[in-house]
Structures are given as C-alpha cells and as structure tokens.
Amino acid sequence: MIGPRRVKLTAKQEREAYDIVTARDGGMCQRCGLYGPVDRDHRQNRDPYNTVPSNLQCLGSDFGCGCHRFKTEHPGLALLEGLTVPRWARPELWPAYRFGVGWVLYDDDGGWQTINQATADLLMNGGET
Ligand SMILES: [Zn+2]
Q1: How far is ligand 1, taken at its centre, from the CA of residue 11, in Å?
Q2: pLDDT of residue 88
Q3: What pLDDT digit, counting tens, does each position of 54-65 carry?
Q4: Residue 59: phi, psi to the nearest 5?
Q5: Ligand 1 centroid, distance to 61 Cα (angstroms)
Q6: 89 CA distance to ligand 1 middle (Å)
Q7: Ligand 1 centroid to residue 47 C-alpha, Å
Q8: Ligand 1: centre distance to CA 39 (Å)
Q9: pLDDT of residue 18
Q10: What's the pLDDT tens digit per position in 31-54?
Q11: Largest CA distance in the chain
C-alpha cells in the first residue's frame, strides 16, 4: 500500500479516540438512532493503527438494538449502508451514513463533514473529491 506511514497507537491514544467518539455519537446507535447500550465499533476491522475517531462509530450492542451484530452478520449490507470501511480504504476518506444526518466523512477530532449522495457514491466507487 502506498500512502502515509502509519504509526502504531498507544493505549492512551486509543482511549482518547474512544472518548471522542462517545461524545460525538452521544450514546446513539448510528444505524437506527436508538439511544441505549452501544458498542464503539471499528468501521474497518481493528488493527494496531486504526483506533481513531474517523474509524469508530457507536452501534447498538446486544443489550440494545443489536445493530452491531447486524453489521457483523451482514457484511454486504453493512457496506451499502455506510457502516463499514473496506480494508484497503482510509476511514477519513470513506463515507459513513450517520442516522438523522446522512452521508458524512468523519474527522479525527470528533467532527464530520456532510457530503451528498453523489459524492458518497463517487468516493465509494474509487473516485476522489
Ligand atoms: Zn441500532
């Protein structure tokens, strides 16, 4: 893979990322909008480098709406719904679908930029903005 060199994150950096996402998503499942027990899900499968806010989202746990399990059990639908980042993509450049907002690009500071459907389609089909 050609791209910026990635640095393995410390436990402290990972904790800070989880805290940022808890604050950003406010305990709301980003798939269905339900408030309740949520997991902080890695949009792209976890590795030593990607526990960063742009790669995390709150999804309902098995004690809540269960959307985290839905994502795990339906990878194809999860990708179409904007819940998953492919292995080869960069999370900050891969659209997420945020309940009540629509398509967004998450940053690593706890914010996001809204994008329209056409831009989301372009990014997910290998284009660049
Ligand atoms: Zn849910």
Answers
A1: 28
A2: 92
A3: 999 999 999 999
A4: -130, 145
A5: 8
A6: 24
A7: 24
A8: 10
A9: 97
A10: 999 999 999 999 999 999 999 999
A11: 40
